[in-house]
Amino acid sequence: MTAKRVVVADEDLMVRAALRPLLERGGYVVVGEAEECRDAMALVRAHSPDVLIIDLALPGLDALELVKRVSGKTDTRTVVLTGRPAEKYAARARSAGAAAYVTKTGDLANLGDALEAVATGGTFFPEE
Q1: pLDDT by residue (tens digit) across 84-104?
Q2: pTM of the model as a whole
Q3: CATH number, domain at 56?
């Protein structure tokens, strides 16, 4: 199986730095990192990753708008990894085209479960 290619978009350098080795140990290849929306979109266009992991607090363009653009114009699937509460934002992320929603305050295993679900064509949301 070919390794899944990932772009990580989070404004926090420490989050990006922590995610990279976790993803690589899980068999993913991080092809780019972004700290704002415009850079994330440029990386998606340049690398056509399988997955975009994005924080809704990403500066620049509204992050949900970026999710909508990515899901509507590319084959990249989006995993929202954010500190924003699922009860307020998960449905909005799903409506924008996200394939998964994971909170940073939740269990780390949820991110692995979300990535596995997305990699096999499924979805992962808190109510599931």
Answers
A1: 989 999 999 999 999 999 999
A2: 0.94
A3: 3.40.50.2300
